[in-house]
């Protein structure tokens, strides 16, 4: 009789545990849906999702050259050879410019993320609120340290010290963003984290609840070195047409880049696979086509840069193309993980309430096209001017002059439309 009671209690307990998991999963799904913006999305979520992937890819490219440039700068300043000193100054220049571009291009993917993944982003950001606020402070400190290193580049010891501090702050910024994004993937743990296991409300904002070293290495550290290595191959390819550039130095820089890219590329691939192995089984992501494509993208990159060791200048453009494909597939994989982590609770951004409002998307599209035209012209002119030997002035062609006039016209037109729409809305709201 006692054994029968024992087995009956075990059965009831097992049923309660299993049922509790099912109920909890339903509760998490309901929680996510309740936390979405009641106003809904102003446009189709899949459109914002695609734009988020593409803009994140551009943003992270310059994040990588910011950090990777400093790695090469620090190493170069430890060497006494003149060519290493020269390369250190070149990669410091790369880092200085890249940080600015990374900041500007980082706004767009964050905005798209906030619109369609607001329960994930805001909850995780509040869990580690102080860290998230300090992210801006640390980024500013790192940015000014890089400028300090640039202004003292003729004093290698001082410049190297500032570069070390600068890269530490950038890595800290990357750590914070990694944590906030990673914590967002575990909504089933939010209540436990917020209530400190059900004992008390934890609202300090100073805690770090989740960190994955393999994700951090594969999404930030190794790709920074690999992508910057590919950039050095392009550095060799780009400046070879200039008469005033030392071809031996450029060939050497290209080989340094190719060698660094292949070693870091292998580290990137290995850490990426190790991260995939840590993904929870119930996400169903390990065997996904997006997961396999991300791995194949890194295999492609590693293979191309490996084949470039003998002739980096010839393989510079193929390496750029392979790196672009790998980055795009990584961006898609990263986005897929958000879908996989929330789908188990019956939550989908495609079910997001839709409140179509065409004016905002049209303004965004107009701003995007204006920016593309303006940046395409500015970058083309910078590309052409950079190929001009030092001491000479690049003479723009008649077509390029017309493109410049078109760029100015488009910017003026955009300003008139943007300000005009704002004034119309203000007048309508007050009449």
UniProtKB/TrEMBL annotation:
Domain of life assignment: Bacteria
Coiled coil: none
Presence of keyword Transmembrane: yes
Residue intervals passing through the bilayer: 49-77, 97-117, 129-147, 159-180, 216-239, 260-277, 289-308, 320-339, 359-382, 403-427
Tagged with keyword Transmembrane helix: yes
Record keywords, A-Z: Membrane, Transmembrane, Transmembrane helix
Protein name listed in UniProt: Uncharacterized protein
């Amino acid at each position: 009789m006692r054994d029968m009671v024992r087995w009956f209690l075990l059965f009831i307990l097992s049923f309660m545990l299993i049922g509790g998991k099912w109920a909890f999963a339903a509760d998490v799904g309901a929680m996510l849906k309740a936390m979405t913006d009641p106003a809904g999305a102003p446009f189709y979520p899949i459109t914002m999702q695609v734009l988020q992937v593409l803009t994140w890819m551009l943003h992270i490219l310059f994040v990588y050259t910011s950090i990777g440039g400093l790695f090469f700068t620090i190493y170069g300043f430890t060497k006494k050879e003149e060519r290493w000193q020269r390369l250190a100054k070149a990669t410091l220049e790369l880092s200085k410019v890249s940080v600015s571009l990374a900041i500007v291009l980082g706004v767009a993917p964050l905005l798209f993320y906030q619109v369609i993944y607001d329960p994930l982003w805001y909850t995780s950001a509040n869990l580690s609120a102080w860290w998230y606020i300090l992210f801006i402070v640390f980024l500013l400190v790192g940015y000014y340290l890089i400028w300090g290193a640039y202004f003292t580049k003729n004093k290698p010891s001082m410049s190297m010290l500032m570069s070390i501090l600068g890269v530490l702050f950038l890595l800290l910024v990357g750590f914070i963003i990694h944590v906030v994004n990673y914590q967002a993937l575990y909504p089933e743990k939010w209540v436990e984290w917020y209530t400190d296991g059900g004992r008390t409300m934890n609202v300090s904002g100073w805690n770090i609840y989740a960190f994955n070293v393999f994700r951090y290495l594969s999404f930030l550290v190794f790709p920074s070195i690999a992508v910057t290595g590919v950039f050095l191959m392009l550095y060799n390819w780009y400046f070879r047409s200039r008469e005033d550039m030392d071809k031996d130095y450029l060939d050497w820089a290209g080989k340094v880049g190719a060698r660094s890219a292949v070693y870091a590329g292998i580290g990137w691939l290995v850490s990426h696979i190790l991260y995939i192995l840590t993904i929870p089984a119930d996400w169903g992501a390990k065997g996904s086509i997006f997961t396999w494509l991300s791995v194949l993208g890194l295999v492609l990159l590693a293979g191309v840069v490996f084949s470039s060791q003998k002739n980096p200048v010839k393989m510079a453009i193929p390496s750029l193309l392979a790196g672009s494909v790998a980055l795009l597939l990584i961006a898609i994989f990263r986005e897929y993980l958000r879908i996989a982590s929330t789908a188990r609770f019956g939550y989908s951004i495609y079910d997001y309430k839709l409140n179509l409002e065409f004016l905002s998307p049209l303004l965004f599209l107009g701003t995007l096209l204006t920016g593309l035209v303006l940046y395409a012209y500015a970058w083309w002119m910078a590309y052409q001017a950079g190929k001009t030997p030092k001491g000479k002035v690049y003479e723009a062609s008649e077509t390029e002059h017309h493109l410049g006039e078109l760029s100015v016209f488009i910017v003026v037109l955009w300003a008139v439309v943007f300000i005009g729409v704002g004034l119309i809305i203000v007048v309508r709201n007050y009449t």
